[in-house]
Amino acid sequence: MSTKSAKRNILLFCAGIVLAAGYGYHRWTQNLEPISRGEAQLIRYDKRSPLSVVLRDLEERHIIRNAAALGLFSRFNHGPAAVESGTYSLAPGMTAGEILKAVKRPVTVNVTVPEYFWVARTAALMEKHNVAKAADFIDMAQKPSDFAKDVKFPLPARSLEGYLFPDTYRMAPMSGAKPAIQQQLENFQKKVWEGLGEPKNLSKAIIVASLVEREAKLDNERPLVAGVIENRLAKGMPLEIDATVLYAQQRWHIPTRQDIRHTISPYNTYMNKGLPPGPICSPGLKSIKAALNPAKTKYFYYVAMPDGHSLFAATYPEHLANVNKRRHAMRAAH
Question: What is the pTM of this model?
Answer without folding.
Answer: 0.85
